[in-house]
Amino acid sequence: xxxxxxxxxxxxxxxxxxxxxxxxxxxxxxxxxxxxxxxxxxxxxxxxxxxxxxxxxxxxxxxxxxxxxxxxxxxxxxxxxxxxxxxxxxxxxxxxxxxxxxxxxxxxxxxxxxxxxxxxxxxxxxxxxxxxxxxxxxxxxxxxxxxxxxxxxxxxxxxxxxxxxxxxxxx
Length: 171
Fold this sequence. Notes:
Blueprint: H1 3-28, E1 48-56, E2 59-64, E3 67-72, H2 75-86, H3 95-105, E4 109-119, E5 122-131, E6 134-140, H4 142-152, E7 156-159, H5 160-166, E8 168-169
Parallel strand pairs: 4-7
Antiparallel strand pairs: 1-2, 1-7, 2-3, 3-8, 4-5, 5-6
Helix pairs in contact: 2-4, 3-4
């Protein structure tokens, strides 16, 4: 199989999984339905705080008031996050650029992107997507959540308990 055929196969599988997830998500996880009632302009919900994203080499800072959650990412993740923050385009599309384009072309809106927990010494994130009246909540890496939020112009949220227990004072 050629590289082009492999690439197309992967894209088709991703889109099929995404479509199935959007269709079945409300049945498998009823609390996702509450996201339907939430518009992008509304508050993120109890227990979430909006953060500003900054990066210094491979250190990410998620800042809320005078507190910041910070963690390190790989060089390629830092590169992608930096491009999102700077609203710049790499010579060739990065994975997050491709995902953004897929969402745009299939009229899928990001309802919310959040870092919602810290388990087993790892931050965890979720993204809530909406297409028409269909909702899908996806578990993802925080670095991917940040890269997509910055590209899409979306506010990134952090769970308040994570901010309270994992942050450092920065001012």
